[in-house]
Specification:
With about 240 residues, this protein is an alpha+beta fold. It is built from eleven helices and four strands, in the order H-H-E-H-H-E-H-H-E-H-E-H-H-H-H. The longest helix has 24 residues. The chain binds flavin mononucleotide.
């Protein structure tokens, strides 16, 4: 097709990296490409914190799981949703930003996610690999303390990047027929389609080289979505200035 689409189709999360550092020039190239992402109303509500300090890395690796790859990867980034800069911009114009709207939370979170996915794609296009680390939200306040993240900014997720020292299989995605609807949200409960996909995932989990297991997609989602999910997030976000009004 073309190289961009080829790279996108090759994505798989990488959690084991060669010790080789990522060249500074490459880091800049990746992050400047990432910044080209679309941004809601040109707000550019994303700040990236690169964590170099081994002690901070170790603490984040621990609270995130533990997830040792956070400490081991050559490049670890934390993507923050940032409304502080907008507040600053308003102040510079002698205006007061209205705060606490759910819409602002969505704008900033989406902006961070778009920059992050551009980062992942740019990195992959240059032969690097990586993995998102939502695990930092296990203890977002500690991440804020470690990285001195102020109010009106919150860490959405981290990302490990580096040269892959692993070659995992690609995880099959839902068939497009299930994900894509035409003109309306038709047939929301297509059990048959999901059963077929379960079979595909079952084969993937059974055949993959490492950590193979007897599992499928609905079981996996069932295990996850039937328990509490980081219930501290609401109070944490409110405290950081992201009320939901
Ligand atoms: C926002 C987000 C947070 C994630 N957090 C973690 C994480 O904390 N640890 C981890 O090992 N993988 C994490 N992942 C990776 C997913 O598990 C992975 O993308 C998914 O299982 C699909 O696999 P693939 O990326 O290999 O295709 C995260 C992915 C996203 C998008």
């Amino acid at each position: 097709m073309n190289q961009v689409i080829e790279v996108m189709g090759q994505h798989r999360s990488i959690r084991k990296f060669k010790e080789k550092p990522v060249e500074e020039k490459l880091v800049r190239t990746i992050l400047e490409a990432a910044q080209c992402a679309s941004t809601s109303n040109f707000i550019q509500a994303c700040t990236i914190i690169r964590v170099n300090d081994p002690d901070k890395r170790a603490q984040i690796a621990e609270l995130a799981g533990p997830q040792p790859w956070v400490a081991q990867c050559p490049l670890f980034l934390v993507f923050c949703a940032d409304l502080k800069r907008s507040d600053q911009a308003c102040g510079m114009c002698g205006l007061e930003m209205v705060k606490g709207y759910t819409e602002q939370f969505i704008i900033a979170t989406v902006d961070a996610a778009l920059v992050a996915q551009n980062t992942m794609l740019a990195a992959e296009s240059l032969g690097l690999g990586g993995v998102y680390i939502g695990g930092i939200r296990n203890d977002p306040q500690k991440v804020c303390d470690l990285l001195e993240i102020p109010d009106l900014v919150y860490p959405v997720f981290g990302m490990c990047l580096g040269y892959p020292d692993d070659d995992p299989e690609r995880k099959p995605r839902l068939p497009l027929e299930i994900v894509l609807k035409e003109d309306r949200y038709a047939d929301p409960s297509d059990d048959n389609g999901l059963s077929v996909y379960d079979q595909t995932c079952c084969e993937y989990y059974g055949q993959r080289g490492s950590a193979n297991r007897d599992d499928n997609w609905t079981q996996q989602i069932g295990r996850m979505m039937c328990k509490e999910m980081r219930p501290h997030m609401k109070a944490f976000l409110e405290k950081k200035g992201f009320e939901m009004k």
